[in-house]
Write a structure and sequence with these properties.
This protein is α+β, with helices and mostly antiparallel strands and 271 residues long. It is 48% helix and 24% strand. It has seven helices and ten strands. The strands form four sheets. A three-stranded antiparallel sheet has the order 3-2-5. A hairpin with a 5-residue loop joins β9 and β10 (265-268). α3 packs across α5 (145-159).
């Protein structure tokens, strides 16, 4: 085996060193991520430039890159909170959040990679306790879930607005009350529903009775007016008209015998 020329040894060593430097310097940022550059000899965390975007980057081997996920993420949390009358309530909620892209460097410098535990979670818990404490268990169980969801979101967003975090939404997924309280609320709601149904039936029956009374009164008034307008002369004329019409019938033979007490003709016989 032939020995390498003397000039070849330094070249090989140089290539190895170069390969190590490139390996240490190569950084790949995946989709949905951003890189925060830390310059060891250049002032620390870079905050006055955009973060490293997706793709391949070469950085000096003595510098560091901290990778943050910047796509929207979801946080699930179960919390024990107190209602306005001091009862324990379990709240299941989730938050949609992400780091503010252009401020990832400031987020890393001022808060750190565990910003979720340091900032977001404590803020959500504090806001949830504050909001839920304004409502009774009955309100939380029935009609106020959307309201507390909105209020927790607004309070949390207000607190973290200067913390380089974007909060998109907070969802209250479940409100769990003690079983005894839940059963009592359900009984009360059932009784209220039954009471409303009874009141509805009562109002309906009252309206129907009033309708019948008005119709009967109308008929009575009509009959009274009709009776007052009928004289003996009108009745006699109506009787004569009816007799004439009857005499015209092809199926009848009319024989006028005389007249009754009213003076109307008497009609006898038919086919």
């Amino acid at each position: 085996m032939e020995k390498l020329p003397k000039i070849g040894v330094p070249v090989v060593i140089g290539l190895v060193i170069l390969l190590v430097i490139i390996t240490k310097s190569a950084i790949t940022i995946d989709s949905g991520e951003a890189g925060v550059l830390y310059k060891t000899f250049g002032g620390g965390v870079v905050t006055d430039e955009p973060p490293l975007g997706e793709g391949f980057h070469l950085v000096a081997p003595w510098n560091k890159v901290y990778v943050y996920e910047v796509r929207r993420q979801e946080l699930f949390e179960k919390m024990k909170v107190l209602s306005s009358n001091g009862l324990d309530i379990q709240l299941d909620a989730s938050a949609w959040y992400k780091p503010r892209y252009n401020d990832v460097g400031k987020l890393h410098q001022e808060i750190g990679e565990d910003y979720l535990q340091r900032i977001l979670l404590p803020t959500i818990r504090s806001a949830a306790r504050s909001v839920v404490g304004r409502y009774t268990p009955e309100q939380l169980y029935s009609s106020k879930r959307d309201a507390i969801q909105s209020e927790i979101f607004e309070e949390t967003k207000k607190i973290i607005k200067d913390q380089y975090i974007e909060l998109d939404e907070i969802l209250v997924r479940d409100v769990t009350l003690p079983n005894t309280i839940k059963e009592a609320i359900e009984r009360k709601l059932k009784q209220e529903q039954e009471s409303l149904e009874y009141e509805f039936r009562l109002v309906t029956a009252t309206k129907e009775a009033e309708k019948v009374r008005i119709e009967a009164q109308g008929k009575a008034d009509a009959n009274k007016i009709l009776s007052a307008s009928l004289t003996d002369k009108i009745l006699q004329d109506k009787g004569i008209d009816a007799t004439i019409e009857l005499s015209k019938s092809p199926n009848s033979k009319v024989i006028v015998v005389g007249s009754g007490e009213s003076g109307l003709p008497l009609i006898l016989g038919n086919n």
